[in-house]
Amino acid sequence: MTTTPRFKSDAFEAIHSAASGLHRSGVVGKQTMREFDALCLAEAPHFDAKSIAAIRKAAKVSQPVFAKYLNTSTSTVQKWESGAKQPSGIAARLLQVVKKHGLDVLV
Predict the structure, then answer these.
(1) What's the mean per-residue pLDDT of the chain?
(2) What is the pLDDT of residue 95?
(3) pTM for the predicted model, two decimal places
(4) Cα 36 to Cα 7, 10, 23, 40, distances in angstroms
(5) Best label site of 12, 13, 75, 86, fewest CB within 10 Å?
(6) 85 in Cβ contact with 76 (< 8 Å)
(7) Where in the chain is the domain with CATH 1.10.260.40?
(8) What are phi and psi of 53, to 5 degrees?
(9) What are the pLDDT digits (tens) for 23-50?
(10) Which pairs from 85-91 meet CB under 8 Å and 24+ separation?
(11) Is residue 94 a contact partner of residue 106, using CB atoms and an 8 Å limit?
(12) Distance CA 53, CA 63 (A)
């Protein structure tokens, strides 16, 4: 399964598309393409352990309930909140949505 890249803006998407075409034709190397990726692609949000716990507490739910909403395990939420593990990809985006709109948006 491949994911569709998220770009910082439409302009960055156009620039990246042009660079990708040049890369496919062999004019632009891998290193240059990595640099374009870093410049043009939007990164997943970063949450530290305290901010994850704060999001959950603001939603007024326990770790097991929070885990169910995010479709993950209770141990994963515990690891996030202790700083042993970092949420990435979809999990980080879901945390961003919950922080902004609350847990009810996932129902």
Answers:
(1) 89
(2) 93
(3) 0.65
(4) 11, 14, 11, 6
(5) 75
(6) yes
(7) 49-106
(8) -60, -40
(9) 999 999 999 988 888 888 877 788 999 9
(10) 86/46, 86/47, 87/47, 87/52, 88/44, 89/44
(11) yes
(12) 9
